[in-house]
Amino acid sequence: MTEAVEYDVVVLGAGPVGENVADRTRAAGLSTAVVESELIGGECSYWACVPSKALLRPALARADARRVPGLSGAVQGPLDAKAVLARRDERVGDWDDTGQAEWLDSIGVRLYRGHGRLRGPRSVVVDGAEKEHHLLTARHAVVVATGSRAVLPDLPGLAGARPWTSREATSAREVPARLVVVGGGVVGVEMATAWQALGSRVTLLVRDGGVLPRMESFVGEHVVDALREAGADVRLNTSVAAVDRPGGSTGPVTVVLGDGGSVEADEVLFATGRAPRTDGIGLDSVGLADGSWLTVDDSCRVEGTDWLYAVGDVNHRALLTHQGKYQARIAGAAIAARAQQVPLLETDRWGAHSATADLAAVPQVVFSDPEAAAVGLSLAEAERAGHRVRAVDYDLGSVAGAGLYAEGYRGHARMIVDLDREVVLGVTFVGPGVGELLHSATVAVAGEVPIERLWHAVPAFPTISEVWLRLLEAYRG
Known about the structure:
- This protein is α/β, with parallel strands linked by helices.
- The chain has 3 domains: 2-41 and 97-149 and 276-357, FAD/NAD(P)-binding domain; 159-272, 3-Layer(bba) Sandwich (FAD/NAD(P)-binding domain), CATH 3.50.50; 370-476, FAD/NAD-linked reductase, C-terminal dimerisation domain (Enolase-like, domain 1, 2-Layer Sandwich).
- It contains 15 helices and 20 strands.
- The strands form 5 sheets. It has a 5-stranded mixed barrel.
- A hairpin with an 8-residue loop joins strand 10 and strand 11 (253-257).
- Helix 1 packs parallel to helix 9, helix 3 runs antiparallel to helix 4 (81-91) and helix 3 (49-65) crosses helix 7.
- The radius of gyration is 24 Å and the shape is globular.
- Belongs to the class-I pyridine nucleotide-disulfide oxidoreductase family.
- Residues 362-468 form the Pyridine nucleotide-disulphide oxidoreductase dimerisation domain.
- Its cofactor is FAD.
């Protein structure tokens, strides 16, 4: 049976990004449907942000406690891995999306469970789980919010070795005695941190010279030092040539290295990149390449169309949940404005219909030990962009609040200042607890707050935030 229904907006994908754009369009009075083939809540809720942070929080809390005299002796034992995994399961709702589906219903959004694909402009076909078919048409917009997926390299033996990707790493039911992690990006570093703390003997293999390469180089240096101190075997400039698991999914796995050596483990995680989940959704029916990233304007409308939008990972602007949700709010406002035939959208740099923060002020926290947090441009990025800049550095351990936070606190801060406009272009922190410093930096960068005005934003004593005063003093001389 095929059911034909018309809506104002049809959204492909019910992760946090798809949920947010549906919420915004429905709040604007537009009838909205969402199509999802997996769990409502998407990658972030079940296999990424939420479960990974549930695994990491006990590790970071214990590490912080061990740095406080008078408390350190009480937390010297191992983590209760069973309890940590049980809390992880609770935080993801035991992979049951009933509550998320009920929320969509409560805001008046119609949910279609099944695989959705475009069939020409403004038309979506849904193949339902019960073999029913739906034909949805959109008066105003179809929004692609299908996210991204992990990519595995083409290596001999890998396909039969049943490797972990980020999904298996965040949902595993038991702690592997030995874990090899391939890749020095965010997923690799966070999962190495979590599973090492839970009792696994972790070997981290990084093909190039450092971890977290998109951040300032000092960040990776701090993180590598800490991982090694925690017992992880971190090998830089190390490539993987092949993987062998002769015993099947339950046997040990051998990772063959580019130099001819090898590492044996119980599981191997490949955290080596992501690709858009746009294959099989009918992009070719509207003249776009199947499986491609989607290029959008600042209102997140796909270039060359007046009805198709792409929000979140699929547009490749910033593969972060919070940025995808920001894009969803922008796209929702733009769709509503165009549906209401608003003659002139606010598309200036910080307008209501322009996602310019994806170009200037993207914040990210890596929940390693120590934490890493950055927003805006690094020094190298600022120089490549042609800005006349100055990098201002400060030892976070010298801030009074840091010394109270933890004995022997180690960390670093860098502020990138545009010398022509005297505004902050980027800020990077590394150290315990620095994730909570990041929003102040994001406000400074996004708001283009002049240095002379930041001087009057007084940080409370004795907090780690006092580093702002020290950075400004160093800049002013």
